[in-house]
Design goal:
This protein has 159 residues and is an alpha+beta fold. The protein has three helices and six strands. The chain has helices at residues 3-33, 46-72, 128-133; strands at residues 90-95, 100-104, 112-115, 118-123, 141-146, 149-158.
Protein backbone atom coordinates (compact mmCIF):
# COMPACT_ATOMS: atom_id res chain seq x y z
CA UNK A 1 0.00 0.00 0.00
CA UNK A 2 1.12 3.52 -0.81
CA UNK A 3 1.41 5.45 2.49
CA UNK A 4 1.82 8.86 0.83
CA UNK A 5 -1.49 8.23 -0.98
CA UNK A 6 -3.10 7.25 2.33
CA UNK A 7 -1.86 10.48 3.91
CA UNK A 8 -3.15 12.51 0.95
CA UNK A 9 -6.57 10.85 1.29
CA UNK A 10 -6.64 11.57 5.03
CA UNK A 11 -5.62 15.19 4.44
CA UNK A 12 -8.41 15.49 1.85
CA UNK A 13 -10.94 14.22 4.42
CA UNK A 14 -9.72 16.76 6.95
CA UNK A 15 -9.80 19.52 4.30
CA UNK A 16 -13.47 18.70 3.64
CA UNK A 17 -14.19 18.95 7.36
CA UNK A 18 -12.34 22.28 7.55
CA UNK A 19 -14.46 23.65 4.72
CA UNK A 20 -17.73 22.51 6.31
CA UNK A 21 -16.70 23.76 9.76
CA UNK A 22 -15.64 27.14 8.35
CA UNK A 23 -18.97 27.53 6.56
CA UNK A 24 -20.88 26.61 9.73
CA UNK A 25 -18.84 29.04 11.84
CA UNK A 26 -19.46 31.84 9.34
CA UNK A 27 -23.20 31.17 9.24
CA UNK A 28 -23.40 31.14 13.02
CA UNK A 29 -21.33 34.32 13.30
CA UNK A 30 -23.61 36.05 10.81
CA UNK A 31 -26.61 34.88 12.81
CA UNK A 32 -25.12 36.23 16.03
CA UNK A 33 -24.68 39.73 14.58
CA UNK A 34 -27.91 39.76 12.58
CA UNK A 35 -30.44 42.44 13.44
CA UNK A 36 -32.99 39.83 14.53
CA UNK A 37 -30.54 38.46 17.12
CA UNK A 38 -30.52 41.70 19.10
CA UNK A 39 -31.84 41.20 22.60
CA UNK A 40 -35.42 42.25 23.14
CA UNK A 41 -34.87 42.64 26.89
CA UNK A 42 -32.20 42.06 29.53
CA UNK A 43 -33.17 38.37 29.84
CA UNK A 44 -32.79 37.63 26.10
CA UNK A 45 -29.48 35.80 25.58
CA UNK A 46 -29.92 34.56 21.99
CA UNK A 47 -27.13 36.72 20.55
CA UNK A 48 -24.78 35.84 23.40
CA UNK A 49 -25.46 32.13 22.98
CA UNK A 50 -24.97 32.38 19.22
CA UNK A 51 -21.65 34.17 19.73
CA UNK A 52 -20.47 31.40 22.09
CA UNK A 53 -21.46 28.82 19.49
CA UNK A 54 -19.65 30.73 16.73
CA UNK A 55 -16.54 30.95 18.90
CA UNK A 56 -16.63 27.20 19.52
CA UNK A 57 -17.06 26.50 15.82
CA UNK A 58 -14.16 28.82 14.96
CA UNK A 59 -11.99 26.95 17.48
CA UNK A 60 -12.99 23.69 15.79
CA UNK A 61 -11.64 25.07 12.50
CA UNK A 62 -8.33 25.98 14.20
CA UNK A 63 -8.10 22.49 15.73
CA UNK A 64 -8.79 20.82 12.37
CA UNK A 65 -6.15 22.97 10.68
CA UNK A 66 -3.61 21.87 13.31
CA UNK A 67 -4.62 18.23 12.76
CA UNK A 68 -4.17 18.68 9.02
CA UNK A 69 -0.65 20.00 9.51
CA UNK A 70 0.30 17.16 11.85
CA UNK A 71 -0.91 14.57 9.33
CA UNK A 72 0.44 16.28 6.20
CA UNK A 73 3.95 16.61 7.62
CA UNK A 74 4.26 13.34 9.54
CA UNK A 75 7.32 11.20 8.90
CA UNK A 76 6.42 8.03 7.01
CA UNK A 77 8.43 4.98 8.00
CA UNK A 78 8.66 1.59 6.39
CA UNK A 79 8.01 -1.17 8.86
CA UNK A 80 9.13 -4.77 8.63
CA UNK A 81 8.03 -7.86 10.57
CA UNK A 82 10.71 -7.26 13.21
CA UNK A 83 9.76 -3.63 13.89
CA UNK A 84 7.54 -2.41 16.70
CA UNK A 85 4.35 -0.54 15.82
CA UNK A 86 4.77 3.23 15.95
CA UNK A 87 3.44 6.35 14.20
CA UNK A 88 2.83 5.87 10.45
CA UNK A 89 2.46 2.11 10.83
CA UNK A 90 -0.07 0.33 8.66
CA UNK A 91 -1.30 -2.62 10.71
CA UNK A 92 -3.47 -5.59 9.74
CA UNK A 93 -5.41 -7.13 12.61
CA UNK A 94 -7.19 -10.44 12.37
CA UNK A 95 -9.29 -12.17 14.95
CA UNK A 96 -12.87 -13.08 15.75
CA UNK A 97 -14.18 -10.68 13.09
CA UNK A 98 -13.11 -9.59 9.64
CA UNK A 99 -9.51 -8.55 9.01
CA UNK A 100 -9.02 -4.80 9.33
CA UNK A 101 -6.28 -2.40 8.34
CA UNK A 102 -5.35 0.43 10.73
CA UNK A 103 -3.16 3.43 10.04
CA UNK A 104 -1.50 4.95 13.13
CA UNK A 105 -1.46 8.73 12.64
CA UNK A 106 -0.77 11.70 14.92
CA UNK A 107 -4.27 13.09 14.23
CA UNK A 108 -7.38 12.21 12.26
CA UNK A 109 -8.46 9.28 14.39
CA UNK A 110 -11.88 7.77 13.86
CA UNK A 111 -11.87 8.42 10.14
CA UNK A 112 -12.07 5.68 7.57
CA UNK A 113 -10.77 5.78 4.01
CA UNK A 114 -10.53 3.50 1.02
CA UNK A 115 -7.20 2.67 -0.58
CA UNK A 116 -6.13 -0.10 -2.96
CA UNK A 117 -9.45 -1.88 -2.46
CA UNK A 118 -9.08 -1.93 1.32
CA UNK A 119 -10.87 -0.03 4.04
CA UNK A 120 -8.35 1.65 6.35
CA UNK A 121 -9.29 2.88 9.81
CA UNK A 122 -7.24 5.74 11.24
CA UNK A 123 -6.20 5.51 14.90
CA UNK A 124 -4.12 7.84 17.02
CA UNK A 125 -1.79 6.97 19.90
CA UNK A 126 -4.28 8.65 22.25
CA UNK A 127 -7.10 6.25 21.32
CA UNK A 128 -7.43 3.01 23.29
CA UNK A 129 -6.70 0.90 20.20
CA UNK A 130 -3.75 3.09 19.23
CA UNK A 131 -2.29 2.82 22.75
CA UNK A 132 -2.80 -0.95 22.67
CA UNK A 133 -0.98 -1.32 19.33
CA UNK A 134 2.08 0.82 20.03
CA UNK A 135 5.21 -1.19 20.72
CA UNK A 136 3.77 -4.53 19.60
CA UNK A 137 5.06 -6.76 16.80
CA UNK A 138 3.73 -8.98 14.01
CA UNK A 139 2.43 -12.17 15.60
CA UNK A 140 1.55 -10.57 18.94
CA UNK A 141 -1.91 -11.32 20.26
CA UNK A 142 -3.89 -8.60 21.98
CA UNK A 143 -7.03 -8.52 24.05
CA UNK A 144 -8.95 -5.36 23.23
CA UNK A 145 -11.96 -4.05 25.11
CA UNK A 146 -14.97 -3.94 22.79
CA UNK A 147 -17.90 -2.63 24.77
CA UNK A 148 -18.92 -5.15 27.43
CA UNK A 149 -16.74 -7.92 25.99
CA UNK A 150 -13.10 -8.46 25.10
CA UNK A 151 -11.99 -8.98 21.51
CA UNK A 152 -8.95 -11.12 20.81
CA UNK A 153 -6.89 -10.12 17.78
CA UNK A 154 -3.47 -10.84 16.40
CA UNK A 155 -1.18 -8.57 14.44
CA UNK A 156 -1.03 -10.22 11.02
CA UNK A 157 0.94 -7.65 9.02
CA UNK A 158 2.86 -4.42 9.54
CA UNK A 159 3.96 -2.02 6.82
Amino acid sequence: MDKPAIVRALVALIDDEILRATEAANRTRQGAIHEEARPENDKDTRALEASYLARGQAQRVVDLQADRQRVAFMDLRRFGPDDAIDLSALVLLEGDGPERWYFVAPAGGGRQLQHAGASIHVVTPEAPLGRALLGHFVGDELQLPAGARTREVSIADLR
